[in-house]
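Hey all, quick one. A colleague (J.T.) asked me to put the flavin mononucleotide job into the tracker so the inputs and the structure tokens live in one place instead of scattered across chat threads. No bug as far as I know, just bookkeeping. Sequence used:
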Amino acid sequence: MTEILVLYYSVGGSVREMAHLVARGVNQVAGASARLRTVPPVAPRTQVAEPPVPDEGAPYAELADLEQCAGLALGSPTRFGNMAAAPKYFLDGTGALWAKGSLVGKPAAVFTSTASLHGGQETTLTSMMLPLLHHGMLIVGLPYTLAEVNHTASGGTPYGASHWAGSADDKPLTDDERALCIALGKRLAETASKLSR
Ligand SMILES: Cc1cc2nc3c(=O)[nH]c(=O)nc-3n(C[C@H](O)[C@H](O)[C@H](O)COP(=O)(O)O)c2cc1C
């Protein structure tokens, strides 16, 4: 079984919905399955500990999830044109895996959601690629042969899937955005399957 880790952080639910669609795309590939995981928020004070298992949604990721996966889809909301602190904090704790080369040669893809259409989707997606490249991962994007990349009037980029959620974070994903989330998961799983042959 080619297991793809779909690792996301979401506060308002937009990136979570995208993660489920990416996972659906992964699961459409024969012999592939998605493992959904999230990360806890980063608190300025550590007086209140998060429960070891979140009250709802996906379990928290552990380093073993990264070690065991055949590929990684990483999703984060945009924060000032960059990825959020919580997934960055998790990635900053992966030095031991970097030292062992655990992720070298594994494919990876990224996805994000923003409030405004030009509020930093592409900068966020490319910033999310940087630590993954340091880990030696192979970045998988969305080719223009997917019609939705060409004609989307909302999210969806060659750098990865994206969603324009609006200032209230409540715009539903468009058909194009949904199709590209699924396509990203599918492409990632197909790539991982080919690489592991
Ligand atoms: C501190 C902060 C910074 C943000 N920075 C941006 C930004 O630079 N550009 C943008 O379009 N949206 C920005 N947003 C909005 C979120 O990226 C957006 O609401 C996203 O859809 C949230 O995803 P979620 O529902 O999965 O949490 C910001 C939100 C917060 C709280």
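Adding what we noticed when we looked at it: The radius of gyration is 16 Å. Helices lie at 14-27, 63-68, 85-92, 95-100, 121-134, 147-151, 175-195.
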